[in-house]
Amino acid sequence: MPDTFRELRVELGDRSYPILIGKGLLGSFDLTPYVSGRTVMIVTNTTVAPLYLEQARNSFPGCQVDEVILPDGEAFKNWETLNLIFDALLKNRHSRKTTLVALGGGVVGDMAGFAAACYQRGVDFIQIPTTLLSQVDSSVGGKTGINHPLGKNMVGAFHQPRSVLIDTDTLQTLPQREISAGLAEVIKYGLIREPDFLAWLEGAMASLTSLDSEALTEAIYRSCVCKADVVAQDEREEGLRAILNLGHTFGHAIETHAGYGNWLHGEAVGAGMVMAADLSKRLGFITDEDLRRVKSVIVSAGLPTGVPDDMTSDHFMNLMAVDKKNVNGQLRLILLRSLGDAEVTDRFSPDALADTLSAFCH
Ligand SMILES: NC(=O)c1ccc[n+]([C@@H]2O[C@H](COP(=O)([O-])OP(=O)(O)OC[C@H]3O[C@@H](n4cnc5c(N)ncnc54)[C@H](O)[C@@H]3O)[C@@H](O)[C@H]2O)c1
Ligand SMILES: O=C(O)C(=O)C[C@@H](O)[C@H](O)[C@H](O)COP(=O)(O)O
Ligand SMILES: [Zn+2]
User: Fold this and answer.
1) Residue 340 is labelled as binding a ligand
2) Taking a C-beta distance cutoff of 8 angstroms, is the pair 361, 307 a contact?
3) ipTM entry
């Protein structure tokens, strides 16, 4: 067992769980204390399996370890792929005491978690996130699910993992574009709640994009602390948790419009956060200088600040009409009150929103 790793907890009463962060944990950290029976089903994909599956198996000594290897990509986050997990569980006669293990990025994590929430009405699962985005965000908090062609993450469940194991070494094989995508969610924490972290990120961005291990570990740790605290206060998004959706109302519209291809989730969220900041400025919440800072940190992370060429204001309005935060048909958005302070609100003028959309759409 490696002796240097950082640990924090998501405090949810009897469903509390640890997040373990460090180098070289995969395969050497014994995860059997988080396995209720003796069977494990590792859910991974065609890209991650050749890189990390054998190592992951070593984290479950003494267990029967089966695997299911899914096709790779956001476009496969759907019913058909989810069914492959149930097929594998039944073919291998996994019972209610089995533990699913998500080994991969957020797509694998969301699907494995949803399968765990549903299989035989609910079994345990463990998150082993291998992308920056999944290490700082999707592996923590228990949102699981799949996409629908008409809306992102529209079918799912809240189901918390038993533990989260983050091996920061896995980031060394991640393409640069995926590092940038992960940084969008990291920046999000700075913008919604952590002004000091935002300032730190502005200074550390070059180290982060060049995969400096110390800087990445710090960013992952601080992101997980922020997410764990928000989730502990509002597990089911009845209030506060919605701030984790900064940029997502616009971003999800972009992803759905793009057919869950071309645009990565983090890229869409990056552009969406600039749009949310633009609207916040039009409403007089933040200053021109604040908006400049938001754009600048997004650009420095290698993320887009514009929207797809073929997207119109009507596309946005139609896609945002099914957003899960809406109440009685009223759009609710996460806006910035200042850099480091966000709120969910339906109190914005439709004209200001229309102005933001026209400023971004062609
Ligand atoms: N549940 C939540 O709270 C939550 C939060 C944020 C995002 N999400 C969801 O997460 C998804 C995005 O996750 P993502 O950005 O991890 O994308 P992803 O899961 O598609 O992974 C990105 C790519 O990296 C590959 N990959 C994974 N690990 C690798 C490694 N170590 N080395 C090389 N390649 C590797 C994957 O196979 C994939 O091709 C979206 O579906 C989004 O909706 C969920
Ligand atoms: O954990 C949350 O809560 C989030 O909103 C985190 C987001 O980064 C993530 O993309 C999440 O999947 C969005 O959830 P949704 O409910 O808006 O689909
Ligand atoms: Zn997100």
Assistant:
1) no
2) yes
3) 0.99
Q: Comparing 103 with 36, which gets the higher pLDDT?
A: 103
Span 261-290, pLDDT tens digits: 999 999 999 999 999 999 999 999 999 999
- Annotated catalytic residues are 121, 143, 185, 227, 237, 241, 245, 248, 252, 265
Give the model's pLDDT for residue 2.
Answer: 67
Task: Look over the chain and give the mean of its residue pLDDT values, rounded to a whole number.
Answer: 97
* Spatial CA neighbour of 138 closest among 147, 128, 148: 128
Ligand 2 and 248: CB distance under 6 A: yes
How does residue 362 score in pLDDT terms, banded at 50, 70 and 90? Answer: confident
| 272 neighbors 250 (Cβ within 8 angstroms) | yes
Determine the average pLDDT of the residues in 73-80: 98
Q: Which helix (H) or strand (E) covers residue 129, if one does?
A: strand 124-129
Domains of the chain: 6-172 (3.40.50.1970), 176-360 (1.20.1090.10)
Q: How many CA atoms lie within 13 A of 95 on its CB side?
A: 7
Which of 327, 321, 135, 108 has the alpha carbon at shortest distance from 239?
A: 327
Q: Decide: 244 and 227 in contact? Cβ < 8 Å.
A: yes
Contact between residue 331 and residue 346 where contact means Cβ atoms under 8 Å apart:
yes
| Residue 51: predicted pLDDT | 98
Structure tokens at 342: 């966000």
For residue 55, give every residue at least 6 positions away whose Cβ sits within 8 Å of its Cβ, in sequence order, or none: 26, 27
Please state, for a pLDDT cut of 70, what percent of the chain lies above it.
99
Nearest-angstrom CA–CA distance, 107 and 146: 8
| Ligand 1 pocket list (CB less than 6 A) | 45, 47-48, 51, 72, 74, 77, 104-108, 110, 130-131, 133-134, 137-138, 141, 143, 153, 170, 173-174, 178, 181, 265-266
